Amino acid sequence: MSQQGYVAAPPLSQAQPGIGGYPASFGVPPSQPHYAHYGGTPQSAASPPPGACCDYHSCSPCSQNRIDHHAARGRGTCWPCWEAGKVFSRNNVSAFIRSCSSEQIKSIMLKNFYEISINECRLKKASFSPGHGPLHGPQSPTSSVPQPTSQVLPPTSGRPLMPQAPQMAPPPSASGQPFMPQSPQMAPPPIGASSAMGTTAAAAAMGVPGSFSGLPHPPGGYQVRPGFPGAFPAGAAQMAGPPQKKLDPDSIPSTTQVIEDDQTKRGGQVYATNLRGQVPPLVTTDFVVQDQGNASPRFIRCTTYCFPCTADLAKQCQVPLAAVIKPFAAVPKNESDKYYINHELKYSYFEIFQMLPYEQYLHIFLQSAGPIRCNRCKAYMCPFMHFIDGGRRYQCGFCSCVNEVPAFYFQHLDHMGRRVDAYQRPELSLGSYEFVATLEYCKNKKPPNPPAFIFMIDVSYPNIKSGLVRLLCAELKSLLERLPREEGAGSSAVRVGFVTYNKILHFYNVKSTLAQPQMMVVSDVAEMFVPLLDGFLVNFQESRSVINNLLEQIPDMFTDTGESETVFAPVVQAGMEALKAADSSGKLFIFHSSIPTAEAPGKLKNRDDRKLINTEKEKTLFQPAKGVYEDLSKECVSNGCCVDLFLFPGQYIDVATMGSVAMHTGGSVYKYSNFQAQVDGDNFLRDIRKEVEKPVGFDATMRVRTSTGFRATDFFGAIYMSNTTDVEMAAVDCHKAVTVEFKHDDKLSDDAGALVQCALLYTSVGGQRRLRIHNLSLSCSSQLADLYKSCETDALVNFFAKSAYRAMVNQPLKAVREVLVHQTAHMLACYRKNCASPSAVSQLILPDAMKVLPVYMNSLMKSAALVGSADLSTDDRALQRLLVTGMGVEETQALFYPRLIPLHNLDVGSKAVPLAVRCSEERLSEGGVFLLENGLQMFLWLGQACPPEFIQSIFNVPSFAHLGADMTSIPELDNTLSKKLRSVIDHINQQRSHAMKLVVVKQKDRSEAPFRQHLVEDKGLHGGASYMDFLCYVHREIRQLLT
Q1: Contact 778, 305 (CB under 8 A)
Q2: Are residues 215 and 148 in contact, defined by beta-carbon separation less than 8 angstroms?
Q3: DSSP string of 340-396?
Q4: Which CA distances in Å does 157 have to 172, 175, 268, 684, 788?
């Protein structure tokens, strides 16, 4: 065995088949890397020093002689001794097992598990009911994990907790020392040296015999000791069953506590971006950004803000090096927006030459040549450029090329070597800014036309019957008044057009000179064309009366329709051709009801075969249909045509295929199953309003440049890529993010750091071509401890989610989950080996910056897309995959750890949203009321013993028993509690990109199951381990890597 690094863990099926309902070999890395893997053969890590985890167990505190007696005889405690309650030590457990017969071992497995007490060195027997192990799903009787038995009190503010034993006061603790879980049978282990790297807590001997030894704690880790009882060393006969005592979750890292601590520490403060490699506040923290040379974390967040200097270090730790870029992120009103730099000319060069002397003409010609760029790497002028030779030349910070400074751009340098006008030029002092692009950046060197919105409405029978068409047409009358516009513009330049369809398409002429709109029908959908150009795309303000007339007529025109078949690909083709003919980019808003089964290009068939679930072919359920839709996506992107898709299915609709067009064009997908206008109308209207009004850019191309030593290698998002470097998006809005993975191609320097520049070329809503630049400088280090200290868990989860959701269309879900577990264990094992002080192998040590990573990773693996269950809709699983692909860090954080907000003690006088509690059933109470939201769904859970006064104030009924089933709204009542609750819900909805439909859930009602599936710290209803079980499992994986 090599002693230079890690060895891969043996197949888990040899030790414990299955965990939490997942198939056997759940945590085994594949023989070849699948995705999100740096490659390289894992190597073996050095074991802890001898004697680091010697723990003794006895039937009484004074039985050491018997321990020595058994040890002297060369064997462990014999069966009669064990039956009599006698003792054995951790060192001779194996000998004890060898001395037992198979029936004796079976008796232990089925009736007993070990409860280890450190201060009394006692081995107890505790019975349990067979067949009710802690893991969800089918279990092997020889492969279960015992539940924790220690009880832990929650930590108090400002003072770390230490374990307390009976008749023993806890030792004094100082700030910065680790807190330990409290147990009535635990004495505190000695406290070792601490460091400023992070906080620590106790770690458990999870699934292995033994307990804490008196070794120093690691300097930067968070040690978890959930109190799992010991199991047999070989791992082949691990115990199962509910314990007599239940572990207090406060003894393990809490996501809500991390969020609260960061808000307390950094909330409300100004975050200045003048330092290289500084870690920003969490996405959940309220803070104000001051741009001082690096892009705001609202635009770019990284998995780590300190890159390893070499590829070998990156392979060793397997922490992905990635950035999540949201180029159009919304900026709060109290922060400075981007600065615009205008190089635009109002006259042609020939006209200027005729009007001005040659010297002035030359000056304007050079100045209008566009943004200053490096001649070699084409990086744009930014704060990372270093001016030399008195300001006549500059050295590129990305490739080190020395460039001449154009005469019109020359400026003297001060005594510090900085240009004297640095703070007057946004590109020299800010991390984010925008250029108005010159004609060189426009297609065919012509200024673009203003974009257009085309509303394409399915008028087949399902949409007419549900009330959608009438509801939508009524809303559009007011919504078109709020089309996006340029800042300071009096009206919107966006043009609009209208199409209705079922098996055939109807185009409408709404030219302002007409008294009535005109319909033109295209029935030959096999060869789609646009029957009119003039009068189809119009300015709403000019054609307001004609458009309003049309919107009033559409619902009545199709009231008696009986047509239920629809087409889809020809609809997208028609919209794209209309934009192409108008030489304009834009969006298609498509409102579709059913799977397209009519005879036409893009006809789909039902592929929803539930027999494929949990098989090698399950991945085919999420693969989009080949051919027509692939070509259509490519055409749409090349013509700047974005597709926003609103689906209203009553059954399977093949979201995987239809939604792929929206995903590749930078659009969004919304799904309203069994839509009814009275029930779902408000939710739908909020979505369409957000989609129409939000900031957006069209016909966008993004390029990510890096400094020498590393490069962007992979991209994840609602994007299309025709080559390996240019990210193409028909549209990009304030909610879309692109995750970029980096890899080394040379060594990085500690002094120079790592530089990233994101350049986005796009067309604004006013028809102006612009360049948006975001710059970020990162630190570099040859010490892995610096890398782990600078990690951001939320960005890591975003990367892992997107890479896993991409992989699931090519690999079995089992293999995808295995890679996630292996990478989690490998990252933590590398930290344990290289960054933590020597300590007992029974301790689980987590980096302070990644201490809640396991709960997020477990939640990701239990997400609808990755858990194989016939109870989940294939369309819903495919939809989640598409949505996550375009999400930013804030959205994935909310999705994979929902907020659970207690409302029964709501302070009606406070404007703040109540603090969330841990997302677990243990936090619920029969007398409580809780709001759960994850950015896509929202539940209001009511306990059976909820006070009648609360029910009366909110629902206007006397008690819990009078509440009806399937409630999806809260009545507007004139009392303070009702107003406060509705304001909390509205505030949360405003923060999210999707309007969340409220579902009222009564405790122990049939509607409670979807709510409980989102309690991510508990076992998944459709498979998946609890947070505690997963932490235990990861710890065993780490131990295997370290031995």
Answers
A1: yes
A2: no
A3: EEE---SS-HHHHHHHS-HHHHHHHHHHTT-S-B-TTT-PBP-TT-EEEGGGTEEE-
A4: 15, 11, 20, 43, 26
Which of 851, 801, 781 lies closest to 305, judged by CA?
A: 781
- Alpha-carbon distances of 997 from 469, 512, 682, 877, rounded to whole Å: 20, 38, 9, 18
Residue 126 tokens, joined: 């505790």
- Per-residue confidence (pLDDT) for residue 95, from 0 to 100: 53
pLDDT higher for 116 or 526? 526
* pLDDT, tens only, 506-565: 999 999 999 999 999 999 999 888 998 899 999 999 999 999 999 999 999 999 998 999
Q: What is the pLDDT of residues 90-100, one digit of tens each?
A: 445 445 555 56
Amino acid at the residue 248: D
Of 799, 757, 791, the residue nearest 282 (C-alpha):
791
Q: How many other C-beta atoms lie within 10 A of the C-beta of residue 971?
A: 11
| Distance, CA of 245 to CA of 546 (rounded, Å) | 72
- Are the beta carbons of 733 and 665 closer than 8 angstroms? no
Q: Are 684 and 675 in contact (CB under 8 A)?
A: yes
CA–CA dist 313, 783 (Å, integer): 9
Amino acid found at 910: S
- Kind plus residue range of the DSSP H or E element containing 805: helix 793-807
pLDDT at position 966: 76
- pLDDT band, very low/low/confident/very high, at 333 (cuts 50, 70, 90): confident
pLDDT tens column, 701-710: 999 999 999 9
Phi, psi of 465 (to 5 degrees): -65, -40
Residue 276 tokens read as: 């290289």
What are the pLDDT digits (tens) for 987-1022?
A: 999 999 999 999 999 998 888 899 999 999 999 888
Q: Which amino acid is at 266?
A: R
CB-based burial of residue 727 (10 Å sphere; 0-12 exposed, 13-18 middle, 19+ buried)? buried
Please say whether the beta carbons of 753 and 185 come within 8 A.
no
Asked whether the predicted pLDDT for residue 41 surpasses 90, the reply is no
- Tell me the two tokens of residue 373: 């760029």
Q: Yes or no: say if 938 and 999 are a contact pair by the CB < 8 Å rule.
A: yes
